[in-house]
Design a protein that fits this description.
alpha/beta; two-stranded antiparallel ribbon; 56% helix; disordered N terminus; transmembrane helix; SV2A/B/C luminal domain-containing protein
């Protein structure tokens, strides 16, 4: 069904399945599809060799060879490998315990041995000859993730901050209002130390309104909707709230004396007409995501021509420079355009960084090193969100300059990595 909130349907009287929930489900479909697709992928030949399944490993290697030869136009070439070097088998202690120990003892020994093996492999990522590469990759992964996720997630708030600087805020201080009725829209106002006696707020819409240190006595709020509206350190006496969307988080350090709440509305009650910035959140994210597509195409075409390091370092430095221009942005359209350029450049850096990381580690440390750097990436993303989120409400300059500096520094470190374009994988 089509409603003022978009496409939606109801489940019971309270739960409204609005279009944003449909959007979340659609976004989850690729993840579900990936899980299904993984069931049809062959197992890693190295894992099969480690568990002693040599024939299955040989068949998968032959399949890879035949597929590559057909893609090169040489299907007549025969898979000629007759001998495969077998990796180290599972620790013998497990086999001994499987014959003599109880089931829980076997599980304990197996888990302990696996964790110890993982720790040893992780520490080998910091041994010669890959130690320097690990340190440099750690810096590049951290800076790219910190700058990219920190700024991208909070960029709609940067736009919102820019909009708030354009819209004037009317300040009302120490006013007294008695025996009044209001049934229109109130927007962009700050009420400080006001007193409202026997007032009726009927069918009203509050947009970016803040009441601070104010007193409401014998007032009625009926059929009220609000956007970015808060009551800070306010006092309500003998006040009735009927069919409003005032949820508890909108009352900050406020007191209620003999107040009544009826038919309180829950969930999202606003429309794009009520809060145009909500539209910008979706639209800006959509444009930023759309800009990733040309970045993926360009990086795929130029990766082998200009080299991984040139693309990695160049993309990070250029994205840092483009991020710097966000600081100079004076209009929404200009900032959105620079954001699209920024996302297109950073996705090229991500693609080249993935390739460089895989090619710099030998086979026995590749998965562990890549997994460690991905975990570091997530930690940097969380840290970036926390720092940028705390700063963007005060000023847009510091987050933008911070992201620009971090990306440029990370790109310069990336240029110092070894070139793997002509090397044979270890």
């Amino acid at each position: 069904m089509r409603s003022e909130h978009g496409w939606s349907f109801s489940m019971g009287s309270a739960y409204q399945f609005h279009s944003w929930r449909v959007f979340v489900i659609v976004c989850a479909l690729p993840c579900v599809s990936s899980v299904v697709a993984l069931t049809f992928m062959p197992e890693s030949p190295r894992f099969l060799l480690e568990v002693g399944k040599h024939d299955e490993a040989w068949m998968i290697l032959k399949l890879i060879h035949d597929t590559n030869m057909r893609a090169r136009g040489q299907p007549e070439k025969v898979f000629s490998v007759n001998r495969i070097k077998t990796p180290k088998q599972i620790d013998e202690l497990i086999e001994i315990e499987s014959d003599t120990g109880t089931w829980y003892r076997r599980c304990f020994v197996r888990i302990r041995t696996e964790l110890y093996g993982i720790w040893l492999t992780f520490m080998r990522c910091f041994n010669y000859p890959v130690r320097d590469n690990t340190i440099k990759l750690t810096i590049v992964w951290f800076t790219l993730s910190f700058g990219y996720y920190g700024l991208s997630v909070w960029f709609p708030d940067v736009i919102k901050h820019l909009q708030s600087n354009v819209l004037p805020i009317e300040k009302i201080e120490r006013e007294k209002f008695s025996n009044f009725t209001v049934n229109l829209t109130i927007a962009n106002e700050l009420h400080i130390g006001a007193e409202y006696d026997n007032g009726r707020f009927l069918g009203i819409k509050f947009k970016s309104v803040t009441f601070k240190d104010s007193v409401f006595k014998d007032c009625t709020f009926k059929d009220v909707t609000s956007v970015n509206t808060y009551f800070k350190n306010c006092t309500f006496i003998d006040t009735v709230f009927d069919n409003t969307d005032f949820e508890p988080y909108k009352f900050i350090d406020s007191e209620f004396h003999n107040c009544l709440f009826f038919h309180n509305k829950t969930g999202c009650q606003i429309t794009f007409d009520d809060d145009y910035s909500a539209y910008w959140i979706y639209f800006v994210n959509f444009l930023g995501t759309l800009a990733v597509l040309p970045g993926n195409i360009v990086s795929a075409l130029l990766m082998d021509r200009i080299g991984r390091l040139t693309m990695l370092g160049g993309s990070m430095v250029l994205s840092g420079i483009s991020c710097f221009f966000l600081w100079l942005g004076s209009s929404e359209s200009m900032m959105v355009g620079v954001l699209c350029l920024y996302n297109g450049l950073t996705i090229s850096a991500w693609n080249s960084l993935d390739v460089v990381t895989v090619e710099l580690y030998p086979t026995d440390r590749r998965a562990t090193g890549f997994g460690f750097l991905n975990a570091l990436c997530k930690a940097a993303a969380v840290l970036g969100n926390l720092i940028f989120g705390s700063l963007v409400s005060f000023t847009k300059s510091i987050p933008i300059l911070l992201a620009s500096t971090v990306l440029v520094c990370g790109g310069l470190v990336g240029l110092r990595l070894p070139d793997t374009r002509t090397q044979v994988l270890m």
